[in-house]
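Data availability (excerpt). The following record was deposited with the supplementary files.
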Amino acid sequence: RQGLTSSFESQHRLLHQDGSYRWILNWGLLIRNAAGVPYRLVGAQTDITTRKMGEEQLLYNALHDGLTGLANRTLFIERLEHTISLAQRHNNATFALIFFDLDRFKVINDSLGHVTGDQLLITIAHRLKGCLRTSDTCARLGGDEFAILLEHVQDDSEVIKVVERMQQMLKTPFVLNNQEIFVNASIGVILNTTGYEKPEDLIRDADTA
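Predicted structure:
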């Protein structure tokens, strides 16, 4: 109205009557007369929901494992960096890192095929999530390697209980393509996380453990 800007653009959501949301793009352009006085505003509203969903999917794909849907290495590193920074600022902020690596996974892939191997990884991911709290982060780092970040840990017994649940879930056979498959895993734990500054160092030591 005051002519402070000659154009504008904004995005917002609208609640549709079916309960879903629609993303709307608004844009406008100020028209001036020969004397430079604004006298008209032209613009349009466009439904950009499809585009927004595509952008959100691309972002999701960039931060999550395509096979299991878990966080990928990139997202896990970001969250671990944040947790380390938080722990450095607040001495009472404690956390733990668990490294989970399937034993002899290559044998399963070679003997039963990659499709069965992928199904096993998907099922493992689902069971691992069932061992954790909603606030914990479970990631697939690659291949048959998984990492779990346990935040806000009160004492070591909490971490031990999580590891015990993981060990217990491995005792139940995996039924894939009408075959029962028994697997084992190596589990490394870092309980004392003080002194760490780089996420890669924590992951390395948990893998070594």
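Summary of structural features: The helical segments are 49-63, 73-89, 105-112, 114-130, 156-171, 199-208.
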